[in-house]
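Cross-posting from the chemistry board since nobody answered there.

I work mostly on the small-molecule side, so proteins are not my area. We synthesized magnesium ion and want a rough idea of how it might sit in this target. Sequence and SMILES are below. Is it possible to get a predicted 3D structure of the two together?
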Amino acid sequence: MTLLNVQQLCKTFDGLVALDQVSFTLKQGDVLGIVGSNGAGKSTLFHLITGYLNPTSGNILFEQQPVEELSPEQRVRDGIARTFQKNRLFFGLTVEDNIRTGCFLSQRGGLKRTLFGISRAEKQAIQNEVDTIVALTGLDAFRHNGAATLSYGYQRRLEVAVALGAKPKLLLLDEPFSGQSPKSIEEMGQVLHGLAKTGISMMLIEHRMESIIAYCNRLLVMDQGRVLIPAPTTGGVVPC
Amino acid sequence: MDGLQFLFNGLFSASVYGLIALGLTLIFGVLRVGDLAQGALYAVGAYVVFWLTQFWGMPYGLAVILAIGMAALLSVFNGHVVYRRLRPLGVGATFIGAIALLLIYRNLLVLAFSWDPVEVVSPFAGQAWHAFGMSIAIHKFSVLIVASLAILALWLFLHRTRWGKGLRAVSQNEAAALTLGINAKAVSAMAFALAGAFAGGAGALLAPLWPFDPGSGTLFVLKAFAIAVIGQTKLRRVILVAGVVGLSEVLIQAYWHAEFSDLVPFVLLAGLLMVKPQLLSVEAETLSPISTTAPRPIRIPARGWQILLTVCAVVALLTLPYWLGNAFWLHLMILTGIFVILVSGLDLLTGYAGIPSLAQAGLWGIGAYTSALLALRWGWTFFPSLGGAVLVTLLAAWGIGVLGLRLRKRWTSFTFIIGIVITLLLESLTNLTKGTHGLVGVPSIELALPGLETLKLNPFRDKAAYFYLVLGMMFLVLWLKQRVVGSRMGLALVAIREDEDLAKSVGVATDRYKLRAFLLSAAFAAVAGSLYAHYLTYLHPHLFTFVQSFNLFVMNVVGGAASLLGPVLGPVALVLFSELTHSIHATLAEIVFSVLLILVLIYLPRGMVGGGRRLMKYWPRKTVPPPLSPKEEVVS
Ligand SMILES: Nc1ncnc2c1ncn2[C@@H]1O[C@H](COP(=O)(O)OP(=O)(O)OP(=O)(O)O)[C@@H](O)[C@H]1O
Ligand SMILES: [Mg+2]
């Protein structure tokens, strides 16, 4: 089933063409790797899909519904979550509270809950969700540490954990492997493998082909805002 | 007056606004904050001229040059001794530091010269040209020429000289400029010196035109600040905007209400924002840089201790009127309670959502005036007036919030401008508010208790009753705040403070939550305003100026932001401090206060609560971390 359908997407910044007629589709369960030189427009593509930037022209259909008009937070509700290229966390909070904030959408508000609090069962349900994500991302040892005190590799992993709180159907990861040691990359790969098994679709930007080959089943090569087709491919990777 | 005369008067104001606005622009380039202390340097310029000519018999021209030098020196001092330490703490702290500096200089001038207006005699006194049916005072004409030449010289300096180009490079991108071998420190010193010279020069040159006092110059600089923002701190646009503002002020003075002319730059700014909200956005990209909130330690006392302490505090407060005895102390406690309500509302914005507002005193004023007018004009009793005040204030806050919250980093400056507009409106809507005459005879509180006759409280006799009323409202507000903080909304606000873009990426509708927090703080402010109005039974626009907003912010910071206790301790400490010291020497007290404030900002950024938590290392505490626990402080 088609999850995401990007049609003739264009984005210009004051005359600079960052994205030029980008089209592709993504099926349920796909893990799409995106490669391309610096400034190719990869992050811009993510910003457009997640609503952080508005397209100059073109359409984005998520589960057959157009989402161009929706704000970032509405798209998260629909099931599109993301991480950022530059590491972003709630740096003043602990690891666990970062993830709890990530589970924002699972928590319920409303006047009654605000004034009189939430039930024990609801509290427990949230805690279970947090625990599941902590286990999935292997951050158990750092639960109560401040996010800012983590090493860069763990911060990268915590970012994925925060994004998972929204229970996304599609997860967009902007260079999740960047700036890490080989061991760290390996561990991050384990996390992504685990995620892929749960059936979640992913798009990930990555410069190193090894990672793409190891974790993606499809590939998109970008250059100067365009999709280059056909794309170089090896092994199980199928260009789209 | 005919066209030419208008043109001359308009150009005259424009050149002075332009000069000061350009100074602010230069500083903005290196500091990223509007340096309001320039307002005091204007006054310093004027007073140096006054002192040198009056007491030393120095010729006016020489005095002007010395005044300019003095203002430039002080400006560099501000930049390199004060702002340099505050800047790493964030835009908010720097802005507050600027206001503190403004108050320090202003009060030093009061100390030296008192508030009595003084005059300087111009070398061209009484001389004027009469031509084409207009009359042009020679002094004014010379000021216009000098200011225009200064602007031209600045332009040439920035575009033609190595130093000027360096300054522009630093404004564009400090890190890149450093790699080019530009001495950023020297360049920033130069920006401060030039700005100070312009502000001080303006003060010195305008001194002979009108009598002045230590507060003169503040409104000038506030307007210049608005002009610089409208002009997006770009040289040519700033000059253009200064021209438009200068001319429209002259026209409004001539054909409409003179009182409204001061509103021009602020209304212009607010209006422009409606059509072009991106005007205030500094960054080109949509994604803001990561916020760097300092880590906070958690030392939560054990539950038993918490309950014991709370019970003690409540009993102490309830019995306060009996062992306080003195009506004056009770009066102070009533005021403190009102401040606690205000600061608690502000804390939702400052402490939790990380979006400090300097419009709080304005909202407080709207609440107070609405409640007072409803009672005074339509005979409403207390609770209906309070309800009306809350509604009207919410409406105003809704407009302000919708307009301003999109501005992100510039929100605080925006609220600052709104605060000024509200004060000016309270001053100029004389039919309604009686303007600067003040609103007298606001009815005191009447309580219609079921089964009993209506109870009319006398603010002088029934202080204890007022105290309990304020205390009750205060507890209600504190309870509500604590509920909100513990709810999903609290989670959203903290997420916004930590990183707004990331908050969006987890599904937080950031605009909606920011607006809600602002509305809640406005409702608190309205409650405080209503209590205040019916307690004082007298209102004046100057009770609600930006200085008051500044005080509220200070109470928040000194007490400790993002906590229940901080917004209680802050007002208590500040009211006590100001009462105890003001009785000794009011002006000196304000100076000491502002100096202490800057020191607190630098050395105790987490306020009294943060300091207290550090001391509570050995306090018995929970072993399980609380639900939303800020991370442990790291010693690095
Ligand atoms: N907000 C913006 N304003 C103007 N230009 C922008 C903006 N964001 C991106 N660009 C430009 O658009 C182009 C594409 O940028 P983008 O960040 O998408 O590249 P990228 O493929 O992610 O590169 P990298 O591998 O370096 O992350 C670049 O030339 C960049 O300078
Ligand atoms: Mg990128």
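Reply from a structural biologist on the board:
Welcome over. Reading the output above for you: DSSP finds eight helices and eleven strands in chain A. The helical segments of chain A are 42-50, 72-78, 95-102, 111-116, 120-137, 152-164, 182-197, 209-215. Happy to explain the token format if needed.
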